[in-house]
Amino acid sequence: MADTIALSRRNFIVGAGATGLTIGILASCSQTTPEADAPDFSDLPPNPEVNAWVHIDHDDTVTVRIARSEMGQGTLTGLAQLVADELDADWDKVTTVYPTPGESLARERVWKDFATGGSQGVRGSQEYMREGAAAAKAMLIEAAANEWGVSAADCSSANSVITGPDGQTTTYGKVANAAAQLAPPLEVTVKDPSEWKIIGQPKQRLDTADKLIGKQVYGADFTMEGMLNASIKQAPKIGASLKSFDASAVENMPGVKKVVAVRNPFGEGNNAVAVIADTWWQANKALDALPVEWEGGVDFSTAEFEAELEDGLTADEAFIGNGGGDVAAAFENAAQIVEATYNMPLQNHACMEPMNTTALYTEDRCEVWCPTQNGEAALGAVADASGLPVEQCDVHKIHLGGGFGRRAMPDYVHLSVILAMEMPGTPIKLLWTREESMKHGYFHPTTKGRVRGALDADGNLTGVHMRISGQSILAALMPQFLQNGTDYATFQGLLPPGVDPRLEDQTLKYTLPNLLIDHAMRNPPVRPGFWRGVNLNQNAIYLECFMDEMAHAAGRDPLEFRMAHLQDSPEAAAVLQAVADKSGWGQDDGKARGLCVMYGFGAYVAACAEVTVSDDGELSIDRIVAATDPGYAVNPQQIEAQVEGSFVYGLSAMLYGEITYENGEVQERNFDTYDSMRIAAMPEVETIIMPSGGFWGGVGEPTIAVAAPAVLNAIFAATGKRVRQLPLKDQNLRDV
Amino acid sequence: MATLKINGETVTVDVDDDTPLLWAIREQVGLTGTKYGCGIAQCGTCTIHIDGSPVRSCVYPVGALTGEEEITTIEGLSEDASHPVQEAWAELDIPQCGYCQPGMIMAVAGMLNDTPNPTDEDIDAQITNICRCGTLARVRKGIKLAVEKA
């Protein structure tokens, strides 16, 4: 079998591609440095791969091929742990590499889906990767058994060493070549969780060492021989076009090579302008000095759209996401009706690394080097933009300086290719400014939620109607997934089972009588996107702040009130009870606490927040207790880091996050006007990881959703005031 | 033309005086550990040391340097990741995506140069870097561990 991956522990190596330009980029996760007395294998030809997932060097280095992207969530390390465990490999000699989407296509998509989102990195890959590793192990053992003339069944493996029936031993590196010649086993059995040795261990991430010394290369750092740099300005107003620009004003500035109008398929005709120069600083300085005029566009404003969202809250027509019983009768017969309206503004992903891609175009080949959450979507963008057959294109992935869903969209890849086509044969790195990345995002959709609840005279919940009004991601980006016009993804965390196989991991775990949850779709001319947690984030606010409101209206304890509706989900009840117990819920100690429990991305999560609010309305978030049951915990310390980090990302949105439009232009420019939580505001987070086994849930996203509701409920406990409008930044919490 | 003393070596860079030190370091010297995040001294990913003090290099013009200053980047903080901050960061496995971490590490190391035993209030006041993956809880623990290791 052809071994098409460039294998070396250096970061970049030029290999033998069709044009001599193929460059394999390693995920640079090597833990090992060569020892001085290490045996010399340089006279041996390199080992072929054992199979698509596993390559083993003569020195026993195991290289795991991984299609999913590393953007901080720890997926590479987690998947390497799965493979190493199943392979019985020496963990200290495990490293990872990204195959390219082009190589995968050429091998009938052997590496399967490259998309890295929906908290699918580990749970969506674990089965085929563990099976791949188990197959590789079987082949390695068979190769050793053949060499010894013994039965494979009489051999055992541990730490990359195979031991035969008479105590003879060999290493994986020595038999890898022979193993590669064998037919793969027809059937493999993966280990029972009770046999795991590496899975479940709090291993250090494989990429940590490089990230402490500035050695980790991100897309923005990538460089290659002869590369030029570019900065771009896209039409600031939605739908506007480039009217004119005066290149002569900047053409003689230092380093400037070319000033170009860019045909942007994501806007109207030519709607961007870019400067290509020797260095990025020169390109950006010239771009800033370039006289540009725009024309046309949409006069969209956030304030005007608020009225449409309001209208949707009471509109007659809405798509039903979940419902049962007789809601009208429940409200007719109610002793008490509670009603509240909440909102979720547009949010920018604000990845720390601004958007970028390096592209090299020639008339018969186009390749890009980029941080992407979806290598195959990026490959599609390269082919689309270049007009070349997909077989003549490829994408070399680089670790992401944050993704959060933004880098699932390939618009920035597309623009880079269009720019590279201006100078065939010259690699060009297009790096967006922070301001461009802020204005031209795919924002978290904006919705409002109005929830009405009916209580009987005994304080029992007898009916709920939740109306969601607002933006649909699927309508904008994937209309093929709408079902009779309904965007079920809008109802993340609120769905009944059986609606859509892709959303079985996003169902409502409360048992609620007489329920209606519906969606009045109101789409602004603003492109929405998948933002870490996606619709679970606002739905958790609508559901869990309202459960809190109803518990108080009923004169019941918010923990007890929730538990009364979790009888059908012991896992959800367990995470909620865990945070209540650890946080000191119910203690008469004067602490203001708030709870939240949700199910999303196949995991059960809960949080209890503890806050103080000063007399003049200043919020201090003092402590968070969080619990997560993701089924299996592949790397508990990494899960803890993701859970802790979810409070930074989720609470930053609650405190500061809001993209607003006036006259069709985004008003936020940079981190001065779109702030993010600093360490002074960061609470202590105590994380309880309680994997109950039997299912594979996600980690990177679900906890985002419980961050804001827990804090908002704690604010009520502190002040007696309900904060229902986000973000909090300009509000006095004692005067809302 | 400007002369920089960077990580113990003297280098000459051919840039306009108004070029931010960040871009001279990244594009002329070729040290890319120092990152661009905002360009307006808000996020701190570009933090380096000038004579041991943390500086946000994205707004520090090369022309403001005399050539005598000792500039330190993440690549020069230690020879083998042995600075107490780097060791603490490794022990607690702090980086997630890691893009902000060179700046975070340099900001913390710079703070510890002046304030070897920082209080929580010192940390709150002096460490204002942004981390979107959310390593902030571990960063505070890491600072305290680095103090122990120093």
- Could you say which overall geometry of chain B the principal axes of the C-alpha atoms support? globular
Based on secondary structure, the structural category of chain B is alpha+beta
The CATH class label of the largest domain in chain A is Alpha Beta
What's the count of strands of chain A? 28
How would you classify the quaternary structure?
A: heterodimer
CATH superfamily of the largest domain in chain A: Aldehyde oxidase/xanthine dehydrogenase, molybdopterin binding domain
Total count of domains of chain A: 3
Structure classification of chain A: alpha+beta
Largest sheet of chain A, described in full? 7 strands, mixed
Rg of chain B, Cα atoms, Å: 15 Å
How many distinct helices of chain B?
A: 5
Low-confidence stretches of chain B: none
Roughly what is the average pLDDT of chain B, rounded to an integer?
97
What labels would you give this structure?
heterodimer; A: alpha+beta; Aldehyde Oxidoreductase, domain 4; 3 domains; seven-stranded mixed sheet; five-stranded mixed sheet; 17 helices; 22% strand; B: 150 residues
